[in-house]
């Protein structure tokens, strides 16, 4: 198993889950946010190895693919703000580099190829509507536009490749991991409210789906274990109906634990995304229901704060959020 982007927020949790299920894992990451420590815990595991580098580096990708049967693609410049801030790097990594990477997967007898996309692809949908996998895509950011383009490229390979691709549109992640990202809503709100900072919530009635990082590990395991005909060239929303939340619902859930927290509200923020997502397909086809609710994620994070974990976030914000990169676009394909 080769996991591109194993060294970020979701990757180490997926790595741990798959190692626990007996898979051999080769992690591949450029460590754009200097998060090398998040994989250190696996270094003594004989079923684990690490390739450090850029997924745009064709020769390195070729070498990393040696002996591999399945591929999970998590790597990329992740999030609307950072892709807006670094459009050239975004194009090189999320569009050109990813297309070249997908091209390199052909003709090697690979089995499963899982491309991790995002429910952000739905963008803005009418109140009262639920987006299933056939819903019109309306990507609003460079980040989501690249994901839609890569989905289209991958799904367009039907009949032309020897591997079994699956697209997973992940909900927004929450849950404990070595690289907590406090630029994601549930974790950000919980942290600010725990610190009793003034939290300003924009557009409190907008909906999003959320999913615990450990549940993502299980989603990937389900795709790997499913009969090929159930997952090949299929798209799945990855999450569960129980975790469709408005921002207000998240705040209210946190207030149950932290009643003294200070929250203010404002309309017309800069992020217009509003989408409720239908998770019936993954429930029916892969028998997947999340084990963890948003409330569970809040509770475990508050417990971690009480144990003084993540006390250094302000000293090293980039480790805990996708804010700044130092990336030189080079043609290594
Ligand atoms: N976090 C979420 O809420 C969320 C929601 C939906 C989808 N996703 C998707 O899940 C995946 C993982 O997200 P995350 O939150 O762990 O993000 P992350 O930014 O923490 O991790 C991404 C990793 O990819 C690596 N990477 C970036 N460019 C690379 C390159 N050119 N070569 C090699 N490695 C590279 C980074 O160094 C980083 O470690 C992404 O594909 C993201 O789009 C995440």
Can you identify the CATH superfamily?
A: NAD(P)-binding Rossmann-like Domain
Which fold name is given in CATH as the topology? Answer: Rossmann fold
* Spatial strand arrangement across the major sheet: 3-2-1-4-5-6-10
Number of helical regions: 11
**CATH architecture title:** 3-Layer(aba) Sandwich
**How many individual β-strands?**
12
Q: Poorly predicted ranges (pLDDT <50, ≥5 residues)?
A: none
Secondary structure: helix percent: 25-40%
Mean pLDDT: 96
Span from first to last CA? Answer: 22 Å
SSE class = alpha/beta
| Residues in β-strands, percent | 15-25%
**How do the SSEs run, as a string of H and E?**
EHEEHEHHEHEEHEEHHEEHEHH
What small molecules does the structure contain? nicotinamide-adenine-dinucleotide
Query: How many domains comprise the coordinates?
Result: 1
Write down the CATH class: Alpha Beta
Query: How big is the Rg?
Result: 19 Å
Biggest beta sheet summary: 7 strands, parallel
From the spread of the alpha carbons, the general shape counts as globular
Quick structural gist:
A seven-stranded parallel β-sheet has the order 3-2-1-4-5-6-10, with helices on both faces. Helix content is 34%, strand content 17%.
């Amino acid at each position: 198993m080769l996991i591109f982007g194993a060294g970020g927020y979701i990757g180490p949790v997926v790595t741990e889950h798959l190692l626990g299920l007996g898979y051999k894992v080769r992690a591949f990451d450029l460590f754009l946010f200097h998060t090398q420590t998040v994989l250190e815990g696996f270094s003594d595991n004989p079923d684990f190895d690490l390739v450090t580098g850029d997924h745009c580096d064709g020769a390195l990708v070729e070498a990393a693919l040696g002996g591999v049967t399945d591929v999970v693609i998590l790597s990329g410049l992740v999030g609307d703000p950072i892709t807006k801030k670094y459009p050239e790097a975004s194009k090189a990594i999320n569009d050109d580099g990813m297309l070249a990477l997908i091209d390199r997967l052909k003709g090697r007898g690979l089995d499963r190829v899982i491309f991790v996309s995002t429910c952000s692809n739905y963008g803005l949908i009418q109140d009262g509507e639920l987006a299933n996998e056939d819903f019109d895509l309306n990507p609003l950011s460079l980040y989501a536009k690249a994901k839609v383009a890569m989905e289209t490229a991958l799904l367009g390979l039907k009949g032309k490749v020897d591997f079994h691709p699956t697209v997973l549109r992940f909900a927004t992640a929450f849950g404990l991991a070595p690289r907590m990202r406090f630029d994601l809503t549930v974790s950000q709100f919980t942290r600010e409210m725990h610190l009793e900072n003034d939290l300003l919530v924009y557009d409190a009635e907008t909906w999003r789906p959320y999913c615990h990082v450990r549940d993502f590990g299980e989603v990937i395991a389900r795709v790997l274990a499913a009969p090929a005909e159930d997952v090949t060239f299929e798209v799945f929303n990855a999450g569960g109906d129980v975790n469709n939340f408005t921002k207000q619902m998240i705040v209210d859930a946190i207030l149950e634990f932290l009643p003294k927290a200070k929250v203010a509200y404002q309309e017309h923020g800069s992020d217009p995304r509003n989408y409720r997502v239908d998770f019936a397909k993954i429930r029916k086809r892969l028998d997947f229901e999340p084990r963890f609710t948003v409330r569970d994620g809040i509770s475990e994070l508050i417990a971690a704060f009480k144990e003084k974990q993540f006390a250094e976030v302000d000293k090293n914000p980039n480790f805990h959020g996708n804010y700044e990169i130092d990336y030189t676009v080079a043609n290594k394909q």
